[in-house]
Amino acid sequence: MADLFYPIMRGEKFTNSEGEIKVSFGYQCNSDQGIPCSAANGCGIQSGSEMPRTGSFSCLSGAALSANATLANTNICNGLIGAEILPSLDSPNSFRKVPSSPCLSRLDILSSSLQSGMSNLSCSPPSPVCSPETDSYLWKPMSAPSRSDSFLNVMEVQVAGGAAGEDRVQAVCSEENEWLFCAIYDGFNGRDAADFLAGTLYETIIFYFNLLDWESKQDVPRASNGLDPDGPSEYFHDNDMVGNEANRKKYASAESFVKKSADPKMEVSSDSFRHGVLDSLQRALSHAENDFLYMVEHEMEDRPDLVSIGSCVLVMLLHGKDLYTLNLGDSRAVLATYDEGNDMAQSESLKAIQLTDSHTVDNEVERTRLLHEHPDDSMSIVAGKVKGKLKVTRAFGVGYLKKKKLNDALMGILRVRNLISPPYISTEPSLNVHKISKSDHFVIVGSDGLFDFFSNEEAVKLVDSYISGNPSGDPAKFLVEQLLIKAARSAGFSEEELMNVPAGRRRKYHDDVTVIVVVLGTNHRTSKASTCV
């Protein structure tokens, strides 16, 4: 650890005008009440309660640092995303309590904007009736469920999040109902796609969870969108299988998958529920993608750059003991867990398990898939990038690599030549569910900017070492600070010199970085983690 850990002088803060940590928040479970952080700096540290709790996480912290220069709150969807929706969600320096079910939902706000006239059309077209199977419109079915049906709908939630460069981060918590939603949207070529996701995806997920509950009550068959309804039910993965898509398919019937309950009826019910949750997450993402590309088509005449804007997507949902992940692109969720049977006090036994797949051309599975899907295109991968443009193979948005019509909106060298068999970028996410055990310590959720400098194992060791020595500290912010020190030394700068490099130019030295650390369990070693970052 001596060559990995970079000490920070006591009281040192990265708060220069150009290099400020834009997002910094924390939350700690405290008996039955969460304690929101009141400010990013200088707030008092609240120690957690040691009363018995039934939830699966003790605390979380989030931090984000910008490197890219980008226009904030761009005018997509008639400006409603930036002017009406994101301000109600953003809370970059603290958690705050908000109503979870307003009378007029965010999706309703977007839909109502369509009535202003076809000339200003920004989002999906109005439809008088949408079937439950329709994933293409923001308009809800006339017989849609009420907003209070699913487990995500509660009276109030704690929310935090914001933007740093082209990244967006969100965290929504209902401790009393034992769930936590975290998302990182790593935008590229602009922040419009990340902004769109931040303004709509959580609400869309709620809608599909409501729809899941409504369909089960109405006995309506669900479209699986690629999840095999006749295949094996969702099982909990052994740690060695987690995060590897090829292994999950290869060992689908292996003994390494363990069932939750010995009661067949309970097992089928719980497995069916988990399958429904994963299906709802995928349907919500598909819905958001269709809406975004529809918006792009109608606004690209004024803003042709929209066709090239996209985002990686990483969603983590912790519900009870179940940890669900959905990802597109190269952001990661990494679980720190102890070897079974080893003493938890021995940090050497802590393993780093990647819960997500990496969707890049460097992943041999993804590379092979892409070449197989485009047998007539000898230039599907050029210079280590999809059509010479993107390193990621799956992403939200980036319409010019998905539709010829959108590619034609670009001029000159920006346009992709020989777009023979689009789409080249997939929107099919990797999905996973993991059962939290007493051996699981924490989860690191981060954009690829973090893993440009630290391996999974290094990130886990840094967080574990920091938590052990700073039980009231802030592991997400610590990781970002350690990255900055390492980036500065790699560039031959001091930390202060790097922080003073303007956004945009600083991208030469590091990417936008977004990190969330969720400490799991309720034992004493995690009972006093920070509420403030």
Rounded average pLDDT: 76
Q: How do the helices and strands follow one another from N- to C-terminus?
A: EEEHEHEEEHEHEHEEEEHEEEHEEHHHHE
Number of strands: 19
Percent of residues in beta strands?
15-25%
Q: Note the gap between the termini.
A: 24 Å
The helix count comes to 11
Query: What form results from the Cα inertia axes?
Result: globular
Radius of gyration: 22 Å
The structure class reads alpha+beta
Largest sheet: 8 strands, antiparallel
Helix content: 25-40%
Contiguous uncertain segments of 5+ residues? 7-18, 31-53, 113-148, 224-268, 523-533
Note down, in words, how this protein is organized.
By secondary structure, the protein is an alpha+beta fold. Helix content is 26%, strand content 22%. The chain is built from eleven helices and 19 strands. Strands 4, 5, 6, 7, 10, 11, 16 and 17 form an eight-stranded antiparallel sheet that branches. It has a seven-stranded antiparallel sheet with strand order 2-1-3-19-18-12-13. The longest helix has 36 residues, at 264-299. The model is unreliable at 7-18, 31-53, 113-148, 224-268 and 523-533 (pLDDT under 50).
